[in-house]
Amino acid sequence: MKNIKEIIQTEIDAAYMYRELAAMQEDAQIKSFYEEMAKIEEGHRDDFFRETKAKMPSFKLPEVSRRAKILVSLSKRFGENILINALLNTESSMGAAEMTKKLKTGHKLSGSENRHLEILKNIQKMSGSSIGKVETQHRNVGGNALRAAVLGANDGLVSNMSLVMGVAGASPEGNSVIIAGVAGLLAGAISMALGEWISVKSSQELYERQMEIERYEVESKPEEEKRELVLLYKAKGLNPEAAEKLAEEAFKNKDKAHIILVNEELGINLEELNNSPWEAAIASFILFVVGAIIPLFPFFITTGFQGILWSMICSTIGLFGIGAAITLITARSWVKSGFRQVIFGLAAAAVTYGIGRLVGATII
To answer: Which of 37, 42, 41 is nearest to 22 (CA)?
Structure first.
């Protein structure tokens, strides 16, 4: 019965997120799409609830989960792509679970198990002006903001904890741990920031160059580009008549045609060109520092074994928190994810501490 409760909770959360996603839309067609998906999930919820209620008269429909509410709140602040990513993961997990169930029971796969996932991925087929909108948006900075935040803090915590424990193993007394920890914090944060700046800047420059070439082709060879667009639409499953109609509509305005081709042919999300490399660099710097300071700050208060003990306690709490936060993306058990993160992190710290002890004893 636990499994059916989890399924009902998933349907409730999915319906809620689709409703909230619909409310964020300006495009009426996309808005109606998400509203329809919400209705479907609500229908599934009601069907499962009736079945469960018949077996368990005392069963009550659960509320929307805290995870779903947090994801909606984050999406309103950082962009709807957080919700889109979450729904893609949810639909993918539900489809995989359905296929596994059928295989175990000997039922034949119908091909509809991943229907919702495919519908969500292919929302761009609804209208010419919306082509590629969701499929490209879910990969942009907004969509990966939560992932970047969690992984950035995790990199800082694990790398600096390992460094601090290695130095503490060799020389737990004095200021050597603080010096090494601060150096590791700054080196890692600067490296992360520089890498993020280069990544965003180089991507923008590449995209701008590709867009210039595409603009030239639309201006100089419109008929050829129109045929390419028709082929792209057909490849996405549209029938020839619909593909021709959408392409004709698009090329009534060359600016519109250029934007659609940039999305469809090149896979470029124009919103990425508005991302500031400096903002990305600063965010990466801060996130790394937040993680890296956790295992270090106890040594500003105490030294020796007490410093090591408090550093490990703080790091364990931080690792568990990061592991739990990852479940906002993966929708897995926050307890299992938290403890898994703790085990891996402490294992890395134990290795570097042991090496530090060995090297320290050898030098001394």
So the answer is: 37
